[in-house]
Amino acid sequence: MIRFIFGRRNYYPSSGEIMASMEDPYVLIDKWLRAKEFIVVGKGVARADALEKALGKAKYVEDYFQSGFLFIKQVLSTEPHAKIKGINVEEALRKPKVVKVITASDIPGENQVGYALPDQPLLAEGKVRFHGEVVALVVAEDIDAALEASEFVRINYEPLPHILDPLEALQRKDVLVHEEVGSNIAFRTRIRKGNVEEGFSKADVIVENEYRTHHQDHLYLEPEGALAIPGLDGRLTVITAAQYPHLAQSIIARVLGVPASDIKVIVPYMGGGFGGKDDEGPLTAAKAALAAYLTGQPSFILYTREESMRSHPKREATIIKYKSGASRDGKLTAIDVTIVHDTGAYANRGPFILWRATVHASGPYHIPHAKVDGYCVYTNKVYQGSFRGFGNPSVQFAAEAQMDELARKLGIDPVEFRLRNMLRPGLTTITNQLLDHSAGIADAVEQLAKVSGWYSKRREYGVSTGRFRRGIGIGVAWHGISTSRGVPDWSNAYIKIDKDGSVTAFTGIVEMGQGSPTSSHRQIVAEVLGAPIEKIKVTFGTSDAPDGGATHASRGTSIGAIGVLVAAAKIRERLNKLASELLNCSPDEVVIKEGKVYVRGDIERTITWEELIKHAYSRGVDLSATGYFFLPKGKFDDTVGQGQAYPAFSYVAMIAEVEVDTETGKVRVLKVWPALAAGRIINPQQVEGQIEGAAVQGMGYVLMEQLVFDDKGRLLNPDLTDYVVPTALDVPEIAKPVYVEDLFKYGPFGAKGVGEMALIPAPAAIANAVSHALGVRITKLPITPEAVYFEVKKHGLIK
Amino acid sequence: MKVSFKLNGEDVTVDVEPNEILLDTLRLKLGIKSVKRGCERAECGACTVLLNGSPVYSCTLLTVQIDGKEVRTLEGIQDTPEVKALVSKFVEAGAVQCGFCTPGFIVTAYAMIKKGVEPTSENIKKALEGNICRCTGYKKIIDAVTKAIESVK
Amino acid sequence: MFYRIPKFNYYRASTLDEALDLVSSLNDFKVLAGGTDLVIDLKVRRYTVKNVVDISRIKELDYIADDGDRVRIGALTKLQSIADSPIIREKVPVLADAVREMASWQIRNIATIGGNLCNASPAADTAPPLYVLNATLRLVSKEGEREVPIAEFFLGPRKTALRSKELLKEIVIPHEPGCGASFLKLGRRNSFTLSVVAVATLVKVVENKFADVRIALNSVAPTPVRARKAEEYLKGKEVSLDNITEAAKLVLHDISPISDVRASAEYRKDMSVVLTRDSLIKSLERIGIKV
Fold it and tell me: For chain C, which residues lie within 8 Å of any Cβ of chain A, measuring from their own Cβ?
């Protein structure tokens, strides 16, 4: 990297070199990190998309559908595990208006869409591995014809024994979901830090428990859909709901066997994603693209809610065995954790999810000796995938239950016990990564305990023997930002300023509700350029923007906006230089603010933003730039799970107050207090929205959401009647968040990730509060009324 | 069969099969896109419209059922003072995230204001019980509706 | 996209007579009252039918009438109209309580009480209050009218005493002053959800003794049920928490819940007892008695 080459003696740089150095991304990121005064950053600026959405004018995938487009209907497997002896499409093809029936053999490119492992076909080939797997696509001139014909695709199955329980799958070799693997273990992870035997020998108390967590459906309100139009813009253009247009582009290109440059992907407004459309989006797009490619006609697919729930990946179900020890003075000495993820029929992103769970297994605590083993296990169920928190809510639930139990045994207050062990700058994680900066969780937890009245409530509650019992619980969590294990991560964006002074930023980051392109990106561009925010337009979700990575892992702003910041900062340097010539001052003295360009301390010498841009055009200043930034890579040794896991971590805590009706088992969450140490808060209103939404989604997961499978692995509740999510009448009071702005040196203005955060500690906080109320440890999710009632009954808590 | 009704104040006639759903008629034949297809089973509220002034789900009404009736969608009420207030408070309060549920919420909230429901927090939540939002956690939506009611009083 | 309904013939009746003509001349039909259950059932192919008779426009069946000693509700009265009705709130508030917790505002604006009853779901929430109110259903056909006590109306899941050419005309609820009644529903969330168990109870107390007790539950048997054994136990007994608690346990004699995606049979059984007790206490509170 080039830093401050001016410092070299006897060196006279050319103007090009000066510009290159001034445009070094490290220099620019650092410069803006040090900004002290802000025009729009840190303010609750309304989102650019809010108005058109509130008016119902925002367009989602289905809004681009026009009659005359072909319609695609999926044929789903009715077997959990079976050989496909043959697929007879003749009868379906004879139905009126049917154009094509597509099966695996029609795929011109590769029928391979596995993200982590090459184990997953787009359309089932050879066998089906879960009830609900897509076997064929019926393409017809209208919806009714496609629907009718889809019932006449005859699939000849030879049923195979199936396996649903991950622990059983782990043991058995006679029933294999993927024969070529030789076992049902898709992936393994491990961490070996220090010596756990030694660690446990130093422990005065040891707690050992088994935890179980369950699947969750994203239930984004907009089901999956895609529209593929051949020849539009000279390419096959696919409008789809996917969280990473460039990934959709590459998957489509692979399935069709064409170069990525022949494919254009546009992601319009998306009706929620939460990770689900990171996995399913590219596959949805590939199905539409396949039909359009094979028929030469615009083709459209939209899942029914039932199809969506049957076939798209779910939050992982887990079994976590957790042993931890602590010394009498309240210090953790060792943990030994085994994590089993039920990955279902395909690995999908399961290995990455397991990996994340593994390195976060400790919770945000310093532990000298750690041993963690992870198993990602195949079963004949719908596969697991990305969902807000990505393997972390389940393991933090287990880790935080352990913390409470250790604290109880030691007779120390749970918050106090956590604070004694909390990660702080200068300490190492269980992967032995040194946290050199940006670790503000201890401060956040201390503040949170104060605002929630923790200490008095913790003493006061949990002692009642009446019907209604109150409890208060805490969950503290951490979450690595960006991709992991030293896998490369980068950011990029392209910005141009038009002659009229309006600014467009192009990014592959999508808008799925989180608002990064329509709020924080816009604020960052406005702040850095000094242009009025109304002049900033962010064109998002397009594969024509430089590839800047996915909108997942809470990286939409934290990583996604680095590219935006760098591109804007490059242009700003050029504008400063130009303005300094126009205003006869040094570039450092140039102020650009609210449409005015002037010399610091001399408001008289001023021109307008528009004038400045006109001058730039007439004097040959380039007003376009990309903002490529490659995050420094760390080393990671997978054999022992040691090394740099992530460039930075966001931290989050939640305190929950609950009331349990011991007679019905019903848990009411009365209030939650969230705290976040996620670097700079670029838009407090939007961050609050993410926290509130995640807290409620987490509460729904813990208290009511439950997928029920029958003995063939068939989902019995693929609808919102029986898969219940919170309504307006189910939500608790949510306190104003506590923020600790522990700036991250590479984040835009020091920002870290936010989107997933508040969901991660929610299971832990609520379960710990219920455990406190009842005096009984909750080790299994969900905590439905029925589950709580039978716990109460089992422990004889009521007559 | 021919079905005539008032859509956002205008008389319209459509030719539909009896099995056609109002949601499809609105979206696919009449170009009304604020009405969203979320679940198609009367479970989410994204397709809420006003039928003779009352909020209903357009996904569970046969189009033939509305023959001779009056349907209003967000497109048809956006210039009312109530909807103007709702829209501006939704924007201000940060009550819009993915936006897919938002039109349904605004239509229902409008009907609530028109019905003269006493705007307590519990009443607002009760009126909105049939509109699911998966993004916001409802807090800012309830805030926005509360503020909108105050502003049109 | 999309749930599509298989094609059917559509018939619309504007008057009760037209409706009766239609149902007596057609075979293989379903009646559409509000359609909030029927349309979904058609979408998910619970039924496929040749003919649908839309009776939703029969204005003469949309009313709530106060006859002093009884309240009559037309079969096509919308659930929301019932929840909002001053007559219902004053005379039979337990019905308003139950209806208010049914489905969502959007559905209550379309769904009718007749539809809820004739759909005969074991989880029908209008049934328990109508059971304890001793409601009578007036059924009508071209041959004439007959009255069926509500407890004899439900024959099984989706099965009723309605004959093929018959329609439900109105629900007649005797007004019994001095009774206390309440409704409690346990669902998987606080609103817009189906009952795991729901209970309605009604009590009449004379000189601190139970002069009359009626208990009805849904979602715990193939049809909504009366808990006769528990009722009998309490009749004539002194009003006390012990007696109520003892009686509540006896509901188990009259219920036969199953396990499904919503709850296990065991949970339903235990909750039937808890809700019955709580509802009896609440019913007593309604007439100013604290136990």
Answer: 1-4, 186, 188-194, 196, 261-264, 267, 270-271, 274-275, 278
> What is the domain-level CATH number for residue B56?
3.10.20.30
> What is the per-residue pLDDT across C179-188, written as a single tens digit (0 to 9) for each?
999 999 999 9
pLDDT tens, position by position, A305-342 = 999 999 999 999 999 999 999 999 999 999 999 999 99
Residue A636: alpha-carbon gap to chain centroid: 22
What does CATH list as the number for A65-160+224-302?
3.90.1170.50
Q: How many CB atoms lie within 10 A of CB A463?
A: 11
CATH number of C9-54: 3.30.43.10
* 3-class state of residue A283 by DSSP: helix
- Return the structure tokens found at B90: 């939704």
Same domain, B119 and B139: yes
Question: Tokens for A452?
Answer: 């929630």
* pLDDT tens-digit series, residues A625-680: 999 999 988 899 999 999 999 999 999 999 999 999 999 999 999 999 999 999 99
Q: Phi and psi at residue B47, in whole multiples of 5°?
A: -105, 15
**Cα separation, A615 vs A456, whole angstroms:** 65
Count of other CB atoms within 10 angstroms of residue A694 = 28
CA dihedral A167, A173, A179, A182 (to 10 degrees): 90
**Amino acid found at A337:** V
* Contact (CB<8Å) B94/A46: yes
CA distances A500 to A47, A132, A608, Å, are 23, 53, 12
- Tell me the CA distances in angstroms from A65 to A200, A240, B59, B149, one per residue in order: 62, 11, 18, 36
Distance CA A252, CA A290 (A): 8
Residue A17 is predicted with a pLDDT of 58
Q: Please list, in sequence order, all residues whose beta carbon lies within 8 angstroms of the beta carbon of residue A598, skipping any fewer than 6 positions away.
A: A583, A590, A591, A604, A605, A606, A607
d(CA C225, CA A295): 58
Could you give the angle at the alpha carbon of C164 between the alpha carbons of C162 and C167, nearest 5°?
Answer: 55
The predicted complex's ipTM stands at: 0.98
**Å between B37 CA and nearest CA of chain A:** 7
Closest residue to C40, CB basis, from B19, B42, B131 = B42
> With the C-alpha atoms ordered A717, C30, B50, B21, is the resulting torsion angle positive or negative?
positive
The architecture in CATH of the region C180-286 reads 2-Layer Sandwich (3.30)
Helix, strand or coil, per DSSP, at residue A86: strand
